[in-house]
Amino acid sequence: MGEQLEQRESFALMHQMGLNDGAIERRKQVVALEHSDLARIARIRDLVLPRVDEFTAAFFEHLAKFDEARPLFDNRALLEKAKRLKAEHLQGLVSGDYSRHYVAQRIELGRLYAVAGLEMRFFLGAFHQLLRFIGNEVMTHSEHAPLEAFDAFMSLKKVAFFDLGLIVDVLVFERERIIRQQQEAIRELSTPVLQLRDRLLLLPIIGVIDTYRARLITENLLEAVRARRAKVVVMDVTGVATIDSRVANHILQTVTAARLMGARVIVTGITAAVAQSLVALGIELDRLLDTVGDLQGGIELAEQILGYRVSQGNASESRANATS
Amino acid sequence: MSVPILKQGDVLIASIQSALSDQDLVQLRDDFAEKIGRLRTRGVVIDVTALDVLDSFATRTLRGIAYIAKLRGAQTVVVGIQPEVAFAMVQLGLSLDGIATALDLEEGLAHLGDTANGSAGDGG
Fold first, then answer.
1. Substitution target from A212, A226, A261 for chain B, most B beta carbons within 10 A
2. Could you say which of B79, B85, B89 has the minimum Cβ distance to residue A262?
3. pTM, 2 dp
4. Alpha helices in chain A (DSSP H)
5. Residue B101: closest CA among chain A residues belongs to which residue?
């Protein structure tokens, strides 16, 4: 049951990585794996198959030498599974059939390495060790035709590099998954439209503005302008790390759209670094929109436009009023 | 379908109720051009609340009306642009530069009142 689930996940990952039949064939071309190779591999199959367990042991023995691979060895269940998958790998390596099923097995093993946090270089070292053992085995049994044996081993090596490509890609893909998730999280950050006073809205923008998010922001703002009958909107971009021409254009579009609905937008929080880069890029935002240095200034201007007068009450006076 | 132009004090109000052909738009512009001078108009309010699209010709005509009004001493406010319409206009690069906009008719009239008071204040 669990195994089936694992397999399904491997197939799902294959799909995400775009590993369809065409891509698999392409990868075979990349390592120049041809039909003649399959015949050569078939010739050494009987040398490798009886010693699969031995080779597997050698692979893990080599890995065990390194502290960095400890997480894999500390987890018994994971290690058992890795050993089983490795043995399966070796059987598959000489089987001559390197289609979807074989690729799925490689992906599963790659995922296991990713879970165990096994760094690529340790895996590479152990894998090379494994190939060396196989090579020795093949050569010692082919004293009479060393050249043929070498050819057969080189054919096997093509498959090995085909495997390496897959494992490396899985490890990289899994690592990038975290980056993708974080990007997703930043993008999904909600953009609240807050009401500060009657007819005054605050729109704080934090994170990355891309086309999709710019659209969301604009739609949210326009709906809020209509629903709350806003006259002035203070858009604070302090939390936007970089503003390039595309982001500037997005901001400009949002401001223009709000203006069409009769709301005036004040942009605040353009930091020194951002201002510098805008000047360097030759983007002139100030001609097209109202900018104020910081959020406080923006809100003060907005209140002025709306006719609010904020006065600071005398603290001691109000305290006296409260006690009397 | 032609659009009726209503007179409210010294303000002219046109409320567009359905999609207009290009010819209707031109007709509206000509009507305004004639009435603004004749009725000693101070402000023009064009209500587009009912429209779910404003194309390039419509925006150009609105700009034309605003310019004509200005030449004849009146201020123009376009009111009631819907969020979707505003977004689409921005996407298409259509603008109403130089024309005041407001949320709805009430706001538009208030805007005209504000500017009138402002200029009166300036004069005094």
1. A261
2. B79
3. 0.59
4. 2-16, 21-30, 35-48, 52-64, 70-74, 76-93, 100-116, 120-140, 146-188, 211-228, 245-260, 272-281, 295-306, 315-323
5. A262
Q: Which residue from A223, A229, A257 is facing B103, i.e. has the nearest CB?
A: A229
Residue type at position A192: P
ipTM rounded to 2 decimals? 0.81
DSSP B52: S
Specify the residue for token string 């502290």: A67
CB atoms near residue A299 (< 10 Å): 22
* A218/B90 CB distance under 8 A: yes
Q: Rounded distance, CA B44 to CA B7, Å?
A: 9
The pLDDT value given to residue A2: 62
Q: Which of A253, A260, A265, A288 to mutate to test the interface with B (most CBs of B within 10 A)?
A: A260
Nearest CB to A253; choose among B90, B107, B111: B90
Most A CBs within 10 Å: which of B46, B81, B82, B114, as the mutation test of the A interface? B81
Contact assignment for B83 to A225 by CB distance below 8 Å: yes
Tracing tokens 């195994």 back to the chain, one arrives at A3
Which domain range does residue B10 map to?
5-123
Inter-chain contact A262–B101, Cβ cutoff 8 Å?
A: yes
Residues of chain B with pLDDT under 50: 119-124
Whether B86 and chain A come into contact, CB under 8 Å, resolves to yes
Q: What is the mean pLDDT of chain A?
A: 86
**Domains of chain A as residue ranges with CATH:** 2-187 (1.10.490.10), 194-306 (3.30.750.24)
Total domains present in chain B: 1
Give dist(CA A294, CA A268) in Å, integer: 5
* pLDDT, tens only, A14-42: 888 888 888 999 999 999 998 889 888 88
Q: Which residues are paired to A233 by β-bridges?
A: A201, A265
Q: For residue A271, give the DSSP letter.
A: -
Report yes or no: B63 and B37 within 8 Å, Cβ to Cβ: no
* Predicted local confidence at residue A230, as pLDDT: 94
List, as one string, the DSSP characters of A196-254: EETTEEEEEEES---HHHHHHHHHHHHHHHHHHT-SEEEEEEEE-----HHHHHHHHHH
B86 to chain A, minimum CA–CA distance in Å? 5
CB contact under 8 A, B82 and A226: yes
pLDDT digits (tens, 9 = 90+) for A4-17: 777 788 888 888 88
